[in-house]
Amino acid sequence: MHSRHSEWILILDYGSQFTQLIARRLRELNIYCEIHPFNVDLDTVREPHPGGIILSGGPKSVNDKGAPALQKEILDWNVPILGVCYGLQLLAHTEIPGSVEKAEKREYGRANLLVDNKEDLLKDIPNESVVWMSHGDHIHQLPANYEVIGHTSNAKVAAVRHKIDQIYGVQFHPEVAHTDHGKQLLQNFAYNICGLKGDWTSESFIDEQISSIREKVGNDKVLCGLSGGVDSTVVATLIHKAIGDQLECVFVDNGLLRKNEFDSVMHLYTRDLHLPVRGVDASDLFLNRLKGISDPEEKRKVIGNTFIDVFDDEIGNDTDFKYLAQGTLYPDVIESVSFKGPSATIKSHHNVGGLPEKMKLDLIEPVRELFKDEVRNVGRTLGIPDHFIDRHPFPGPGLGIRVLGDLSKERLQLLREADYIFVEELKKQDLYKDVWQALAVLLPVQSVGVMGDERTYEFTCTLRAVTSLDGMTADWARLPYEFLADVSNRIINEIKGINRVVYDISSKPPATIEWE
Ligand code: XMP
Question: Which residues have a catalytic role annotated?
Answer without folding.
Answer: 85, 173, 175
